[in-house]
Structure formats: structure tokens, C-alpha cells
Amino acid sequence: MRPIYASSDGVHSDTGVCGISHRNGGFGAHAALGVRGVKPIAISVDPLESHQQWAGDIGDVGGTDLNFPIIADPDKAVSLTYDMIHPAEGDTSTVRSVFIIDPANKVRLTLTYPKSVGRNFDEILRVIDALQLTDLVPVSTPVDWEPGERVIVAPTISTEDAKAKFGEVEEVKPYLRWTPQPTA
């Protein structure tokens, strides 16, 4: 699976676009997405000229150049069509939605944050990791799962088949079976 991570926002400070460009001591979320085969794209309600003006600010604040495309949506046609502006946040609000879209163009996740709340890129990366894993093997990830932790065997396969496929399987209930995270 190679989802497209689409963050949308009009950047005027260290918000989402800066966070994608620079993060964790130089290993930006953009690089973390790239390792996963994911392509970021942003949409902004600001006009193209505005993007060009604040692209330099992203380098100054984030320590790296703007390194992914931003779509200008100054008339908010896309932003309003897809409910990307948090309700009651005003006419000039930044777009605060995150979409994860897979290669078949299926939306796998949507999040819309209030403009006063920053996005959590660790959670977005965790979701991408979980989607990529569960697309490859018949497992589900439990609440608060992190890569490398055990996973739940899908109820669509028998315990015997799960043991043959994964080796170690702990059966708590017939419908709840744990296994170490399989490697792809």
C-alpha cells in the first residue's frame, strides 16, 4: 500500500506544513512518510502568491525547504466541498483536515482538527504503519498499538491456520488471538 497523505492548511506559523517539512532533529515527517512510500500534498485556502511568500518562512522556521506540493484553493471550492474547514472557525480559517488515501484512491482515514489544535504526526505515521501492515497480512492492530508490538489475528482465519502462518499465537478467546507483529 502506498497511501497519499494529504494535509491541508494555510500556513502562517509553525503548523502542519512546517511540521511535515522539519521534525525530529532534521528527520522531517516528509522523510518519515517517504520511507513508508507515502507522498504528502497540502491544500491551502491562500492564493499561490501567498504560498510563494511563506515558503521561505517554512525554511526559516522548519530548517528545511518546502519539499512537497501545495494546492492553492483561494475560493475554497475544494475545502468546502470536502468539509475541510472546521465548523464555526471563521472565513479566513486554515484548512485543518488530514486524509490518508490509498493507491486505489480510497480514503482510508479522515481527521479534522480545530485550528487551535496542532496535528499529531506520530499518530498519522502510526495509522499509516497499521494500514500498510494490515493490508499485507490478516491481522488487526489493537488500541494504542505501536509498530513492533503484538497484533490481533483476524477472525477470518482459524487458529490452526494462524499458527501455521505466524508460528506463535496466543488464544485468549476463539475470536481474540495475539501474535507478534509479522514482518512483511
Describe this structure in words.
The chain is α+β, with helices and mostly antiparallel strands. It folds into 2 domains: 4-129, Glutaredoxin (3-Layer(aba) Sandwich), CATH 3.40.30.10; 138-179, Antioxidant, Horf6, Chain A, domain 2 (2-Layer Sandwich). The chain is built from 6 helices and 9 strands. The strands form 2 sheets. The chain has a 5-stranded mixed sheet. The protein has a 4-stranded antiparallel sheet with strand order 6-7-9-8, with helices on one face. Helix 3 (48-62) links the parallel strand 2 and strand 3.
Q: What is this structure's SSE topology?
A:
Layout: E1 4-8, H1 16-21, H2 29-35, E2 39-44, H3 48-62, E3 70-72, H4 77-81, E4 97-101, E5 107-112, H5 121-136, E6 139-140, E7 151-153, H6 159-166, E8 170-173, E9 176-179
The stretches of 5 or more residues where confidence is low (pLDDT under 50) are: 1-27
Number of domains: 2
Give the strand line-up of the largest sheet. Answer: 3-2-1-4-5
CATH architecture of the largest domain: 3-Layer(aba) Sandwich
CATH superfamily of the largest domain: Glutaredoxin
Proportion of residues in extended strands: 15-25%
Outline type: elongated
CATH topology of the largest domain: Glutaredoxin
Mean pLDDT across all amino acids:
80
Give the ordered list of helices and strands.
Answer: EHHEHEHEEHEEHEE
Any descriptors?
184 residues; alpha+beta; Antioxidant, Horf6, Chain A, domain 2; 2 domains; five-stranded mixed β-sheet; four-stranded antiparallel β-sheet; 9 strands
